């Protein structure tokens, strides 16, 4: 194993060109990628390069503020706002301390007056004061809306790749009220050390439908195609300027009965600062995720029990973030009642 923790070899990931005119040919390549690694690059995606540069610039500005300023927008009960260094620990069994990164969540802005704001993880966004980071809110809201549109376009390719109708994931109840979250990430200069359990981001798979990740040009992301291999083989995913790195979340793995992979990944920091922007596109809170009829049969029964998107996200956030407690929002009984309602609604 190399000093950086990689195993020194690498297979190139698929690079999907969104401008390619034959969508069925593109979907076939997406299928290959989803089955073999659960990761692919995305180019010609239509997101304005200047907008992306602005988001990185605003993110740098925010993270360079003094801690006391950042703590004014510390993450709230809906998981919006600032998460300090080491607050998150994605792989507690392997890590000796939290991830060497700080973050900032921007979700779908739902005003308190909207009844949906009563649901866990739903509510207004937090933003730093415009006097402190001018233009932050406008830039982030614009980028969030562009990435929501792009995620829907990618979900169409994924639907075709699963032999479903193109708009399957856009049907009412699935992603028409998505829990889409943009996260700004800043990794410190702390060099990762596998022996000591110090990681930029501990090994994990993402939780939802898809993640669209933009990174700066500093390497560090690694994937492990087979989490059960002994020893695990980690491959680097080099940064590609202007491209997104798309990866699949747990919910897609469950929908597809394990055919499409939600692959383990981590960040090994090289001793230099790094900035990245994952955009997590998650189904509606109440969406029931269960094996698609086209992905199971008598010989291939469903491998996972059904669950709702909201339940999965809440349990993951509780496992990985020190300060997260969604029960602050709903009383336990209300949460139970809400769950029962959810299950009833979506069957
Ligand atoms: O920073 C990166 O490159 C990856 C971050 C990541 O995997 C995540 O936030 O889920
Ligand atoms: Fe991730």
TrEMBL record:
It comes from the Eukaryota. The keyword Signal does not apply. Residues 177-283 form the Fe2OG dioxygenase domain. Keywords: Iron, Metal-binding, Oxidoreductase. Residues 328-339 have a biased composition (Basic and acidic residues). Residues 328-347 are annotated as: Disordered. It holds the Pfam family DIOX_N. One of its GO terms (molecular function) is dioxygenase activity. Belongs to the iron/ascorbate-dependent oxidoreductase family. This is Fe2OG dioxygenase domain-containing protein.
């Amino acid at each position: 194993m190399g000093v950086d923790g990689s195993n020194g070899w690498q297979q190139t990931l698929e690079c999907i060109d969104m401008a390619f005119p034959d969508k069925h040919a593109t979907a076939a390549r997406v299928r290959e990628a989803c089955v073999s690694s659960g990761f692919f690059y995305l180019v010609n995606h239509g997101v304005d390069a200047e907008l992306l540069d602005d988001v990185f610039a605003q993110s740098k500005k925010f993270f360079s503020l003094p801690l006391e300023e950042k703590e004014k927008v510390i993450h709230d009960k809906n998981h919006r706002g600032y998460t300090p260094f080491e607050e998150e620990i994605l792989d507690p069994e392997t890590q000796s301390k939290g991830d060497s990164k700080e973050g900032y969540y921007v979700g779908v802005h739902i005003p308190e007056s909207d009844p949906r704001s009563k649901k866990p993880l739903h509510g207004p966004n937090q933003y730093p004061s415009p006097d402190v980071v001018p233009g932050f809110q406008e830039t982030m809201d614009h980028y969030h809306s562009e990435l929501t549109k792009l995620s829907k376009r990618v979900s169409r390719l994924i639907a075709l790749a699963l032999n479903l109708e193109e708009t399957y994931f856009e049907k009412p109840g699935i992603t028409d009220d998505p829990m889409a979250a943009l996260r700004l990430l800043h990794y410190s200069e702390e060099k990762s050390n596998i022996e000591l359990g110090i990681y930029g981001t501990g090994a994990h798979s993402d939780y939802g439908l898809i993640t669209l990740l933009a990174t700066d040009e500093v390497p560090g992301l690694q994937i492990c195609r087979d989490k059960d291999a002994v020893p695990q083989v980690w491959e680097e995913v080099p940064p590609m300027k202007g491209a997104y790195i798309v990866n699949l979340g747990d919910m897609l793995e469950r929908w597809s009965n394990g055919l499409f992979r939600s692959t383990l990944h981590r960040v090994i920091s090289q001793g230099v600062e790094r900035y990245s922007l994952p955009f997590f596109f998650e189904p509606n809170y109440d969406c029931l995720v269960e094996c698609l009829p086209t992905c199971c049969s008598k010989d291939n029964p469903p491998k996972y029990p059904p669950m709702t998107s909201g339940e999965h996200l809440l349990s993951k956030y509780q496992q990985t973030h020190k300060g997260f407690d969604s029960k602050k929002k709903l009383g336990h009984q209300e949460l139970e009642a809400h769950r029962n309602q959810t299950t009833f609604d979506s069957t």
